[in-house]
Design a protein that fits this description.
The protein is of the alpha+beta class and 219 residues long. The longest helix is centred in the last third of the chain and has 17 residues, at 201-217. It has helices at 20-29, 50-53, 80-90, 110-115, 121-124, 141-150, 179-188, 201-217, and strands at residues 14-15, 34-38, 44-49, 74-75, 94-98, 104-109, 128-135, 155-164, 167-174, 192-193. It is built from 8 helices and 10 strands. The relative contact order is 0.11. The chain starts with 13 loop residues before the first strand and ends with a helix. A 4-stranded antiparallel β-sheet has the order 8-9-7-10. Strands 1-2-3 form a 3-stranded mixed β-sheet.
Length: 219
């Protein structure tokens, strides 16, 4: 994928010498959370948010609120996961792109970057989703890979989907393999299996034993 193909220039940055009313009007016409701002020399100053702009006095200049622009951006060689992280950290749906010489090139839209997920094997390839958890200092991705591959499986993707109370939750996408054997191996390595699976023979066995015990006690 070529991320540069996703750079957009539909909306030009506002000059900080323009009136606040112009920014307010632009926000009324758009669905963006922020708009890029530059000075008369073309230097990128940051982005102003819609919430801030609507609180400003309309007849003043944008530069009268020099403290307002938020200086977030990404480079034209930033990878897409770091771009997505930048979106999340700044609670924005527009991300300015600068060259390594700080030249403003345009911006990314959040929906375009999210759509790149659909092109990854994690989503496009057939396979099963398995969610496991283990202590934050006890798990390792090398161990997870070894467990999957030792059972003739292949990892199509893995990421930490949650961290809470020093426990890490890891979401895995595994190609067509014997998922039961993989889950049994994870349990042997003290991982907790969070996803249910209708063919999980371990859980079926536990249920059968529980039902038998319940029947026995009711005799």
């Amino acid at each position: 994928m070529n991320l540069l193909d996703y750079i957009i220039n539909d909306i030009k940055p506002l000059l900080n010498s323009q009136k606040v009313s112009e920014a307010q009007l632009l926000f009324n016409q758009l669905t963006y959370s922020h708009i890029p701002i530059k000075n008369e020399d073309g230097v990128y100053l940051g982005c102003v948010s819609e919430n801030d702009v609507h609180c400003f006095e309309s007849d003043k200049l944008i530069k009268d609120y020099a403290y307002a622009p938020e200086g977030f951006f990404v480079r034209d060689d930033t990878n897409w996961l770091d771009i997505l992280e930048a979106f999340a950290q700044n609670s924005t749906n527009i991300m300015p792109v600068l060259s390594n010489k700080n030249v403003y090139l345009g911006y990314y839209e959040l929906n375009d970057v999210i759509s790149l997920f659909n092109e990854t094997p994690f989503f496009s390839e057939a396979g099963a989703i398995l969610i496991v958890e283990k202590g934050l200092t006890d798990y390792s991705f090398s161990e997870i890979s070894q467990i999957v591959e030792s059972n003739d499986g292949k990892l199509l993707g893995a990421f930490i989907s949650k961290i809470e109370n020093d426990v890490a939750q890891i979401t895995l996408k595994i190609n067509n393999a014997n998922l039961n054997d993989i889950m049994q191996s994870f349990r042997r390595y003290s991982y907790n299996i969070l996803t249910g699976h209708e063919d999980d023979t371990y859980l079926i066995s536990l249920k059968e034993r529980s039902d038998y015990l319940k029947k026995y006690l009711n005799m």
